[in-house]
Amino acid sequence: MPRPMRFCPNCGAPTEYRIPEGDDRKRNVCTATGEIFYDNPRNVVGCIVEYDGAILMCRRAIEPRRDFWTLPAGFLELDETTAEGAVRETFEETGVTVTDPQLFSMLDVPHIGQVHMFFTATLIGERMPAGPESSEVAFVDPAAIDWAQLAFPTIHRTLERYVDDRRRGHNGLHVERLDAQDWNAMHLARDPA
After folding, report:
1. Distance between CA 16 and CA 8 in Å, rounded?
2. Could you list the residue range(s) of the whole structural domain that residue 136 is in?
3. CA-based radius of gyration for the chain
4. In the chain, how many domains are there?
5. pTM as predicted
6. Which of 36, 39, 155, 158 has its CA 20 to 30 A from that of 115?
7. Tell me, what CATH number does 121's domain have?
8. Mean pLDDT confidence for 159-185
9. How many CB atoms lie within 10 A of CB 38?
């Protein structure tokens, strides 16, 4: 959800949170220059890497969801494509170098202002030490995935689709939306109080 800014990051003048002329939603607008600041979704990118039938996963060493398992993924940086970002995040989080990223799933998560994109990729080279965001890295057999220990609903959904596609001999592109109720239901199923 967009948040009002107090001051313009460019000139320091106060901002107003209002609907600019010709727009259909509230934006932060500089009172001195009229510049409009857009608050747009953030992109999360990552890879599904398979080796000898097992899937590359990492245990998070940071919050949120510290000690839960995930696919290697993170926020897209400026000046990189989504595929480049997915390859970079995979290396940073697991120490694994991959090539040939192919889009596998795109999940819109509008209630948190994010889009999650996962690519299948091919393992190349030797494995280096994992980065500081992962406490453990492993290739996990799909039958051994602890579904209750997955960090985020988008990881759960992507792996679910991947394992199902593999079982059926199908290789498709999966595009879907996870609304707040889907997201919360998946979290509650994994985190009973």
Report:
1. 9
2. 42-190
3. 19
4. 2
5. 0.85
6. 36
7. 3.90.79.10
8. 91
9. 9
